[in-house]
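Task card 7
Instruction: Convert sequence to structure tokens.
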Amino acid sequence: MDGAVRKIIHVDMDAFYASVEQRDDPALRRRPLAVGYGAARGVVAAASYEARAFGVHSAMPSVTALRKCPELVFVPPRFDVYRAVSGQIHEIFRAYTDIIEPLSLDEASLDVTANRRGLPTASETAREIRACIKEVTGLNASAGISYCKFLAKLASDQRKPNGQFVIPPEHGAAFIAALPVKKFHGVGPKTAAKMNELGIFTGADLRDQTPEFLQRHFGKSGSWYYAIARGEDNRPVNPNRVRKSSGSETTFKVDLTAPEDIEDGVRSMADEVWDWCEQRHMFGRTVTVKIKFADFQQATRSKTHATPVMSREALRAATIELVRSVYPPRMGIRLQGVTVSSFEDERQEGADTYQFGLDLVIAS
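Output:
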């Protein structure tokens, strides 16, 4: 298989949590549905396609969702059921390949280059996998097929719901060239806005930049952007991948001393971390703020919440609360970092509402 073009399928279930609820309760079918809690401080964990038609989406505050769709029906999440269905889906995957990289309960990348089932194309393999999922679970899945993980992920969004899309090697660069950078997987709103300010609006614009330019403006990510703009992604599908946290940190040109500057710093990093969590639908219970002072001494503050942090505003509030615990800072702050972890705990059933809690400071 040396030198063979890889065949990667990205499978993404359609409105997974909401679809499971509609499957199990016929009265909910074809109705706008939100998985979550309709309480004043509740947050939408998932929305059916009927709800999305009204502009309702995951991580939206419940009060906003109800304002957009007064007929919206809320049902509490049942993570034990979602895990069980996810297990059924992964059992289907294993009939086609052992090289499976789980990304969440409802999403995975599969390397089917070896073609265990002897099917004529990867497209036919994806079609059969989706049909099997439908037969076993009663749920719809969409799929993207390509020669690398980045493009397979992008392709999986092209024919949603209940469809699939292929990006062959000869079309990879052209597909990326025409795509707005804001639609690139892994490019959040903040990064997309920064690219736009630099005159980068599409993949073609990104491809026109030099490695030096991209590294100067985007640091370590610059080399990644340079590669994907050319349709290059050599990352293998990793069956042993377990993502335990997501974080962001920044070293400032001038040490921060004013409270408003310190809080602006962690708020900005919280936004970057939230973009990652929202894109992957992975929400953690533990929030950690790291601080490095001008003398390079470091302090961390962490809090583990009763339920996952399910909104940008909640993550911002949690980080600001933590950084305020070092006031007044003993000297200027040269570096700050924000991390979210305890993703596995998110897959347990919540207690009352999805909101950040005020439970326990674990580390100091």
